[in-house]
Design a protein that fits this description.
Oligomer: single chain
CATH topology of the largest domain: TIM Barrel
CATH architecture of the largest domain: Alpha-Beta Barrel
Distance between the termini: 84 Å
Number of strands: 18
């Protein structure tokens, strides 16, 4: 046989091999086993503490989500190493030459009572790998995955302002649009002018403050991930449409993020003077990098309710948000700060017990006074700074800097 015939045969066999391999990967049975073995190897790196090998299996896109390799190691070691992890179910959703999308359910169990694994981990997560089998999206292992609470973590007091907003609008509401002086003053005091919001974000940027999410704060607390030297958290209560129409474009302009606490029973509804975001809008701001959390079903003062209605308000809102958005909900903003602003210890204990059972790890206050010193061990008692009405820039700055 001539040499060029052998060369052609070799090329032909290579093409057949590549084609056959591609066809096999497109076979759900074979592909499922193939990617299951890859994921098992990645999980073994966590179990064996081989984090450098796992770091190599991250795409450049994923590596950029961590400050550096050490930040990644802290996150993986402190969050996942103590857990027993195995694959419960894996399905190949899509396979192309560039990437493969997997639907994965993992068994994630704590070896003891010190680690509380949220029930949300029983859901399907999407993991996306590139053609080198590196993570493009990390699913259960991402920075935005549910917080696994560590009850052995000691006290940690940090000075971090958490700002509470409601509406952003170009002008204050008109008195003639309201039936009562009370209704007008309430809406007035919940409104921050767009011009004032721009001034605040400009000042924060000029003074090196960086907005982070509640999840990023607790990743730092539990898993020792890095956060900016001057972090700040912005939160919007209620889910008013004006916060989207006027507030979100300003946030995006200054490359900031915020947490939107949604009253699920009011989604898509409208009243004479204002409207609430639709699910489409909420999904849009989620994609734009905003965090979504709960503000109950109908904004009733939780301290005025018996335990069964407390449970309804906090659990149904959580379940609805998770169902609509496909994300874990782990934080709650208490309507009007109740029962914490009433200093009712019995109701506080009842509520926090229910919150822990339902998978919440943090609660945000509204107690009509400002505080920036947060004790993260007492995570259901996060202080916030009220930012609305006719607050001046100098007053805003004073509140932000009060603990420095």
């Amino acid at each position: 046989m001539k040499k060029y015939d052998i060369g052609y045969i070799s090329i032909f066999l290579t093409i057949i091999g590549v084609t056959l391999g591609s066809l096999l990967l497109r076979s759900n049975v074979f592909a499922g086993k193939y990617y299951s073995n890859i994921l098992k190897k990645d999980i073994s790196y966590i179990k064996d503490g081989q984090y450098t090998n796992l770091w190599k299996n991250l795409s450049l896109y994923q590596k950029q989500k961590f400050i550096n390799e050490n930040n990644f190691i802290n996150f993986m070691k402190n969050k996942y190493h103590p857990l027993n992890i195995s694959i419960k179910n894996l399905t190949v959703l899509n396979h192309t030459k560039m990437e493969t999308t997997l639907s994965v359910i993992l068994n994630m169990q704590s070896p003891n009572k010190n680690y509380i694994v949220p029930k949300y981990y029983r859901n399907n997560f999407k993991i996306v790998l590139n053609n080198n089998n590196q993570f493009i999206h990390m699913g259960q292992f991402s920075l935005t995955s549910p917080i696994v609470k560590n009850t052995t973590t000691g006290n940690m007091t940090v000075d971090i302002p958490i700002v509470m907003l409601h509406r952003v609008a170009p002008v204050f509401p008109k008195r003639s649009n309201f039936n009562s002086q009370y209704g007008y003053l309430l809406d007035y005091n919940l409104t921050l002018l767009s011009s004032a919001f721009i001034q605040q974000l400009q000042w924060l940027k000029q003074n090196n403050y960086k907005t982070i999410t509640l999840t990023e704060l607790y990743n730092h607390y539990y898993y020792n991930t890095a956060i900016p030297k001057k972090p700040i958290i912005l939160t919007f209560d209620d889910g008013r449409l004006s916060a989207y129409t006027y507030g979100v474009p300003i946030l995006l302009q200054y490359h900031d993020t915020a947490t939107f606490n949604i009253i699920t029973g009011f989604v898509g509804s409208s009243k004479k003077n204002y409207q609430y975001m639709t699910w489409k809008v909420i999904k849009t701001i989620q994609k734009e990098g905003m965090q979504i959390e709960s503000h109950t079903v109908t904004h009733l003062a939780l301290g005025s309710l018996p335990p069964n209605l407390m449970q309804y308000q906090i659990l149904i809102s959580k379940q609805k948000l998770e169902q609509e958005l496909g994300i874990p909900i782990q934080f709650l903003a208490y309507p009007s700060g109740s029962p914490f602003r009433d200093n009712n210890i019995k109701q506080e204990q009842e509520l926090t017990t229910l919150m822990e059972q339902d998978g919440y790890i943090g609660g945000m206050l509204d107690q009509r006074y400002n505080q920036t010193k947060q004790n993260l061990k007492n995570s259901y008692h996060l202080y916030r700074i009220r930012d609305s009405g006719n607050i001046s820039l100098s007053q805003f700055i004073y509140e932000i800097q009060s603990s420095e």
